[in-house]
Amino acid sequence: MARRNHSMRDALLASSVLLVSGPAFAADVTPERLLNPDKEPQNWLMNHRTYDGQRFSPLARINRDNVKNLKLAYAVPLGGGAGNEYSVATPLAEDGFLYVTDSWGVLYKIDGTSGNVGRIVWRMDPKQERQQRNRGAALWGNLVITGAGIAPRIVATNKETGKVVWEASFPDTPDVTFTSAALPIRDKIIIGAANGDQGVRDWIGALDAATGKLVWRKFTVPAPGEPGSETWKGNTNAWQTGGGAVWVTGTYDPDTNQTIWGTGNPVPMFDPFHRPGDNLYTNSAISWDPDTGKMNWYFQFTPGDMWDYDDTHSARNGFLYTYERSNGQPVLAKPYMEANWTKGIDQKTGKPLDYDPTKDIQTYAGVGNLTPGEPLKKVCPSPSGGNNYWPSSYSPNTKLLYIPAVTACVSVAIDREKHNKERGWNGGLSRTDERYESNLTAIDPTTGEIKKNVHLRYPNYSGTLATAGGPRPIGRHGCRLRRHLA
After folding, report:
1. Taking 90 as the threshold, does the pLDDT of residue 147 lie above it?
2. Would you say the pTM of this structure is higher than 0.85?
3. Domain count of the fold of the chain
4. Which one of 137, 139, 166, 241 has the lowest number of neighbouring Cβ atoms within 10 Å?
């Protein structure tokens, strides 16, 4: 996965517009509250605000007319343990209090009820050995749930006192990390294991919310004899280090009781010869039963991926996919940006038009650099995307999806020596002489029609937020906030 760092202040700047005054002690975060977020529109109680992942705020106080008057209300310094710190977390907001993590896994509770100053109420430090991406917290009952590492842990903190209530560790998979925010579903906490790019076999699991006890766990790369294992061919035992990271928080459909999460690339990311086959269940959207961990269905976007095209908020391979929630059957797949790695997507199957099920190594549109030493060809999008972990948002008012995406193309060279811990697990090298720039695209998810596109002359690594007031604000480097596609 390609990664980018952000200012520690970006998260607080973006979240401060959602705060209102509230009581000093908040009520427990119950399943009923999470199922009915519109009853308390001032709050943002889970990573996407709503289970459907729309990232839409029903607040309308900020609108097209006054958005230009936004200015910094306050800033709270976080971190301080080293240089080049960053934040990729979505802050949670409850009755004027913020819960946010930094790159050391430190969890902060910040009192913003005054509206003009932020006061750190407490901080929970998990004593993490080094910096790591941490995309935020989850609220359940009176607990704040966060991931920590480098020894992988899930930590539950009392939201009033800042004291640790329970901690779950996973010594049998010591190399995974927890970079995505957890997802509370009734009495369970759904978590995704990441760090696949370092030669790790990743998984998704559920913890008992009250105790942290592991209820179920399912690996995203099957072992020999399990369904899907036939898609890991060759004699390298690549499934043992096959990736399939679960690193972007999923969604939940209460009507059908399924939780849907995307998975990351196979490993080594750039060399398919080390892992011939389609490499299930990498680069996939997967529906799970949150009670048992049973897989309901899956859809793989890029079989045998060789460009690090993880499944993110809007697929990183440059195409927007819409599919039936009941069975994962594709409804449409349309490009939202330049994508030359395939000649197109079959609208019935959702597979690339040049996908050949008889091949162990896919060639697609012929831009893969499959032979070391040959002249390099450019592939679009880059491994950064397209869209990446920075989230898209959907407005039920406009019926449009707003996708932030990086636009550079790259060349990828295979390196057959990068298949181990000592040399790294990339299996090659991605490079470009192009300037990284961005698009912000408004697209109709029912037709795939692009309604508007704004090109940004800088690389944007921030998500979008759709609001009832109309603006679609996104962050940008230098701690600025801009609005587009209003």
Report:
1. yes
2. yes
3. 1
4. 166
- pLDDT over 50 at 12, yes or no: no
Percent of the chain with pLDDT strictly greater than 90: 76
Task: Name the CA dihedral angle for 144, 150, 153, 155, rounded to a multiple of 10 degrees.
Answer: -20
39 conformational bin, left if phi > 0, alpha if psi -120 to 50, beta if neither = alpha
Task: Assess whether pLDDT exceeds 50 at residue 43.
Answer: yes
Is 308 catalytic? The answer is yes
> Of 247, 139, 241, whose CA–CA distance to 192 is shortest?
247
Residue 100 covered by a domain:
yes
In terms of Cα–Cα distance, which of 331, 460, 389 is closest to 136?
A: 389
Q: How far apart are CA 257 and CA 401, in angstroms?
A: 24
Strand order through the sheet with 393-395 = 393-395, 400-406, 438-443, 450-456
Q: Which residue has the higher pLDDT, 203 or 486?
A: 203
Domain assignment present for 406: yes
Query: Nearest-CA neighbor of 45 among 144, 125, 148, 155?
Result: 144
Indicate which CATH number applies to the domain containing 354.
2.140.10.10
Is 106 a domain residue?
yes
Residue 199 to residues 205, 327, 370, 451: CA-CA distances in angstroms?
Answer: 19, 31, 21, 40
φ/ψ of 120, rounded to 5, equals -70, 115
Exactly one of 308, 360, 415, 444 is catalytic; name it: 308
* CA-based nearest residue to 102, from 149, 73, 135, 140: 135
User: For position 7, what pLDDT does the model report?
Assistant: 39
Nearest to 14 by CA among 468, 394, 462, 484: 462
Inter-residue contact 466 to 395 (CB < 8 Å): yes
Residues with Cβ within 8 Å of residue 54, at least 6 apart in sequence: 48, 393, 394, 395, 396, 466
**φ, ψ at 17 (rounded to 5°):** -75, -10
The predicted structure's pLDDT at residue 22: 42
Residue 102 belongs to what domain range?
10-484
Q: Is 50 exceeded by the pLDDT of residue 299?
A: yes
Q: Is residue 1 part of a domain?
A: no
279 and 304 in contact (C-beta within 8 Å)?
yes
Whose tokens are 């899956």? That residue is: 298
- Asked whether the beta carbons of 250 and 290 are under 8 A apart, the reply is no
- Longest distance between any two alpha carbons in the chain, whole Å: 65
